[in-house]
Structure formats: C-alpha cells, structure tokens
Amino acid sequence: MIADWFAHIRRLLTEKPPVALLIVTVIVVSSASLLSRLLANDSLMLGPPRQVVSINSKMGIHTRLTDEVEEAKIKQSLEMVREMGASWIVEYFPWAYVEREPGVFKWKHSDMVIQHAHHQGLKIVARLGFVPEWARPPETTPLYLDEENFEAFGRYAAEFAARYQEQVGYIIIWNEPNLSLEWGFQPVDPAKYVRMLQVVYPMIKAANPNVQVLAGALAPTLALPGDPNGMNDLDFLQRMYDADAAPYFDALAIHAYGWHSAPDDPPAPDVVNLRRSELLRAIMVENGDAAKSAMITEGGWNDHPRWTRAVRPGQRIEYTIRAYEVAQQEWPWMEAVAFWAFRYPWDAKSYQDYFTFVRTDFEPKPIYSEVAKYAAGE
Amino acid sequence: MDPEQRIKIHDPQILKLAAQQLFESVQAPRNNINGNNSLFTRNTLLQFTANPIRVIACAILAVFGAAIIASFVVGGGIFTPTDPTWRAMQQRGSWRVGMDPSFPPFELLDEHGQMAGYDVELARAMAARWNLRLELVPIGFDSLLDALQTGQIDSIVSALPYDPRATQNVRYSPPYFEAGIRLVVRADSPLLSQSIVEVEQFSALLANQRLAVEWGSAGDMVGRRLQQAAATIELQPFSTPEEAVSALLTDASIDALLVDNITLLTMQGQGAAISAVGPALEANPYVIASPITAPVLQQEIADALQALSADGTLQGLTIQWLR
Fold first, then answer.
1. DSSP states along A137-151
2. Could you tell me which chain A residue has the CA closest to the CA of B160?
3. What's the rounded mean pLDDT across residues B270-291?
4. Averaged pLDDT, B207-235
C-alpha cells in the first residue's frame, strides 16, 4: 500500500509539477507554524533581566497571579511591581493546582510566575496551601487537611522548595490557621498547626536547606475565647510556642491590616492596627525567638466608600507610605512589608477592589503612582 | 405540467370547473358525517383508529392543544415567559427587597432604627405601582447577590453598581442613578458654554486648566488619565471632596473639579453654586438586580422606572435625598 502511495506521488511530481509544488509548500509552511507554536509554548517572553530601584528595600506587595492565565498579564503585573519600587512579592501557589493527582506535578503556571518575578529582580515569598481533592475527605473544603495527609502536603512543599531553590527564598506554610474558615471549618487548633509544621518543615529543609520557612500568617482578630469562628492571633501565637513550634519555623509571617487606625497609632491587645505587629514580635521575644525575623505578608488599608473599615483614599496613600517607612526606620526585625494586593485578575465588585493598587485593566490607581514616587525618593 | 396544460388552466371556464370540484370535495366529508353519503362512514373511522400511530399522534396533538388553551387561561398565553419570582410576589402580595442600610443618603437607618433613603423611597414607589407591599430585608452589601441567587429576596435596591460580569447570574434594570465622576465648575464658568458630548473631548477642553481633586480618589485617577492626554492639565489635590469643592468656590486659580455625582448633588443641595459639564467622565450607574429567572419582574421594573422618571418621581427623590 505504501509503495502505491509513493508511486502515486512520483507520478504527481512528474506529471503535475505545479500541484506538487503547492502541496509541498503547504506541508512546509504548516510544519514550520506548528514547530514555532510548540517552541513558543515552552519558552517565556522574559525580556532582559531587571533590578528594583527603591529607597526602601523592605517594600513589598502581595500579587494575585494564581488565577491569571495569560503570560503577558503576569509579566505586566510583575513589571509594574518593580516599577513601583517594591522588591518583594508574596504569591500563592495552591497545592491543588499543581498536584491534581498524587505524585503528578504540573508546574507550568508556577514556572511562568516565578521565572517572570525572578527576571524582574523580585524576591519571592511563596504561600503554600489549598488541598487537592484526593488528599481530603469528600464534602470538605480545600482548606481542610487531616494529620494523615500532612506528609503529602510536605512532599508538595519539598518538591516546590527543591524545584525553585534558585528563585524562591521564602515559603509560608498555610494561611490564617487561627480562622475556622481557613482551617477547613474545623475548630482552630494551634497544637495541630504546630504538628503540621513539625511534619512539613523538616521535609522542606531536607529538600532545600537555604529556604526560609515562615509560619503563622495569622489573621488579626479580636475573637473572644470560645469563639467558633477563630482565635485571637496573640493567643494563637503563644499557644504555638506552648506546643513547641519554635524549632519548626525560621520567621514569622504577620497579617497587619490597619482598618481605621493610622500607622503610628499605638498597639493594644484589643485593637487591630499596623503596630499590632509589635505585640506579635513581643511574644516571639518572650519565647526566646528574638533572633528570628518577621515579615508582613498581608495587610494595608482600604478606601471603599461604604465599607465600615475603610479610610479616605488620601489617608490610604499616606498610611501606606508611612507603614513602609516605619518598617524601614523602626523595625529592624521586620524583613519586608507586602501589602494586600497589587491587582486582581477581575473586579470583585465589592470592598475588596479597594485594596488594590492597580485596576484589573492595569490602569494605576493614584496610590500606585504615589508609592512609586516615594520609592523613587521624590 | 407541460406548457400546453398551463395554457389550458388559464382558460376561465376550466378554472371555474376546477373551483367547483374543489368545493364539492371539501363539502363531501361534512355531508357524510351527517349520514347523507357513505364516504366518511363508521368503517372509515374504524380503519383510521386501527392504526395505533395515528391514534397516538392525535392524542399528542390533543394534549398539546389542551396545554396551549390551559396556558392562556392560567398564565396569560403560551408565549408569556415564566417567572417564579413575579408569581411568588403576586401570591405573597409583597416585593421583598434586599439592601444594606449603611450608605446614606441612598439607604440608612433613621433615628427610629427604620430603613430610609433614596432607595427605600424608590422601592416603595415601585411596589405601590404594582399594588404590592414592600418588604425591606437588611443584608450586608457583599452578601446581597448571594441572597438574591438563593431566593431570600426578590430584588436588590441598594445603590448597586452595574457589573457586566454578573449578567449571566442576575437581571439588571436600566440605570436609575449615575454616580460617576463629573467635571464640575462654578456657575459663572466659561466652560459651561462648551458643548461636550463625548468623554474624549474633555482633555482638549481642559488644556491649561487647574483641576481640584480629592487626593487618591476616582476623580484623582480620572484627572491623571486626562493628564496623559493633555500634559498641561494641572491637578490640585485636597484631603476631602468637601475641601475640593470649597477651593473651587473660593480660589479663582482653580478652574474646575473632578468629583463623583453624589458629592456634586449634595454640595448643590447645600447651596454651592456649581454645575456639571458634559457627561460622566467615568460612569458608575446604579441599577436594580433581580434573579436571572425573573424576566417579567425585570420588565416590570424597567417599565416602572420609566414611568417614575416620566412623572418626575426620580427627580423628586434626588431633590429630597441629595439636595
């Protein structure tokens, strides 16, 4: 049969050269096009490597690229972060997105984000969590993790730490475990969170001894004892130390929302403000962890016109810049301040939109321009 | 049909004969039913019913016909869209409206703890048009859409901005209030005489002008956008919109102000001699949302808003609550 085909082709070439030429041209062009597409999928549009220029090396921002599909938008986001003068980004790398089947890791999107961020000269703090379906019981949320699957989470974290050892220097284990919502709607349990650290931390360190593991990332709350929705962050941190957490993290991740308070308002246990970070720091020192650093991995102010915890847009700008200054001038133990959030992939159409620095269409909000001016020393 | 036959058919006599034959053939079965002839006899009927497919087809047609008649009797016709929300409203005798009473003057709690404001009065006027009782359900702003989609409320009337991404989930009314960013000038400003129809015309109009803005606000953002098109536009930031309005009124070096329409109307209500020029530079229309399964309610709302606009009710609400 194949011999017949060849005979037919030979006849075509000799008897009808124009038709043969046309067919050959189509085959060549199609093959070239297919090849270029395949190559394009595997190579990123990184551009030249860049460096952040800023008067404040602690400036950072939480990006939200998890659900951003297009590479061009990921690149533009990270370019704009650099141009704003922020050296640090915090980004979420959900376990369920990467390891949909046990042991099968799909790194394409993570690679894209991390390579672009690294190329822009940004320091990456990776937040890990979000449990795949196979690692939790049916009818549970992706924030639910049983102790029997701590090791599976540890394997993902270790794979991540090893894969990105050249680009990612910081990993946060879990997010806001002092809220029932973030703990899979179970009663919050500092000792169980510490047991997670005790399993996952050594696995990460074995894979990449240089990476800094952050714990905590506690939600600032004023929850009273017994509140089913969560536990006061100050109490939770102390109970973490009581459960022997100290050897299982290298730095503390802090969430520092300002609500109505100015950045220079003093801290108090019954107040949520920026300087509540100092109370968390005091607990670290009291428990012998003064040598460790901390990092604000979420926080900031909101200027929604009707949200009850919002401030005026001008106050938001003023407070944000002052907070960066406070971290630089007064808090030697604070490694970076990454506020929530740079940009959303789409509008939330709620107060959440008023946390961002850039609109979904990349138009910079005034806060972006003013922070950029501050970072440039203007 | 060959050409010869076609010619014959055009003969009036032949046409008359054909018409007569057709008339007789139509009349024949009727005569047979009356027993005058034997063409449509009991045998024919038995022959027809002997074929089960014919019987089933006739039964289906009968059921379908009955359904059409029933739909006209019960629901006003088969082509009327079904709307469980509107039907439930009629049966209940009320329109259940969700709102977050924390956004004066659109919705607030008065000194008696009752919900009041522009949106409350608007909803009341609409319910009255439908002869329905108004039920107000206080719900946090961020939970309003969930409450609508889970059937806890019939509609949202809560200074709700239009969201094009949500049109697959809810039905929106036409806008009833535009809260977007306006160019505002003093009552004696020469800019008032300018005819501005398109947003793109603003940057040319404002070249070499000094604009007051609230620092960091949406007006500030629009101003910075205008500066991209006309670098000679100067922005003068203020801490609050009230300070910006005050500066416009007292500082002759400030030519105009970029502020949201709510602030504009409120300040006008307080006696500030200021006016808007042209359309909103950045639109922010407020709309009423209803369930995606409520096309009748959506149409009723649209009709009511049109009527309330035509009879001056909407204008009256603006004067009552914003001025």
1. -TT--TT---GGGHH
2. A349
3. 96
4. 96
With a threshold of 0.95, tell me whether the complex ipTM lies above it.
no
- Residues B274, B244: contact at Cβ < 8 Å? no
The SS3 call for residue A63 is coil
Q: Which domains does chain B have, with CATH numbers?
A: 3-75 (no CATH), 84-178+286-322 (3.40.190.10), 181-282 (3.40.190.10)
Which residues, given as ranges, of chain A have pLDDT below 70?
Answer: 1-3, 5-6, 9, 12-13, 33-42
Question: What is the pLDDT at residue A135?
Answer: 98
Q: How far is B223 from chain A (nearest CA, A)?
A: 10
Confidence of residue B234 (pLDDT cuts 50, 70, 90): very high
pLDDT band at B66 (very low <50, low <70, confident <90, very high): low
Residue from the list B103, B161, B215 with its beta carbon closest to the beta carbon of A313:
B215
**Can you give the pLDDT at residue B187?**
93
User: Parallel, antiparallel, or unpaired for β B285-291 and B170-172?
Assistant: antiparallel
A349, A363, A366 member nearest B216 (Cβ): A366
Q: Kindly state the helix (H) or strand (E) to which residue B158 belongs, with its residue range.
A: strand B155-161
Model confidence at B199, pLDDT cuts 50, 70, 90, reads confident
Nearest CA in chain B to A349: B163
Q: What is the 3-state secondary structure (H, E, C) of A195-249?
A: HHHHHHHHHHHHHCCCCEEEEEEECCCCCCCCCCCECCHHHHHHHHHHCCCHHHC
Residues B237 and B217: their CA atoms lie apart, in Å, by 10
Residue from the list B163, B215, B240 with its beta carbon closest to the beta carbon of A317: B215
pLDDT single digits (tens) A202-260 = 999 999 999 999 999 999 999 999 999 999 999 999 999 999 999 999 999 999 999 99
Measured between alpha carbons, how far apart are the two ends of chain B, in Å? 82
Q: What is the pLDDT of residue B21?
A: 53
Which strand (E) or helix (H) includes residue B64? helix B52-75
Q: In B, residues 147-176, which contact A (CB 8 Å cutoff)?
A: 159, 161, 163, 165-166
Residues of A in contact with B161 (CB under 8 A): 349
Cα-based torsion angle of the residue sequence B280, B282, B288, B290 in order, rounded to the nearest 10 degrees: 140
| CATH class of the region A59-375 | alpha beta
Specify the DSSP element, H or E, that contains B298. helix B295-310
C-alpha atoms less than 13 angstroms from C-alpha of A122 in its C-beta half-sphere: 32
pLDDT value of position A28: 74
Report the distance separating Cα B43 and Cα B33, nearest Å.
12
Q: Confirm if A136 and A142 have CB atoms less than 8 A apart.
A: yes
B216 touches chain A (CB under 8 A): yes
CA quadruple B201, B203, B204, B207: dihedral positive or negative? positive
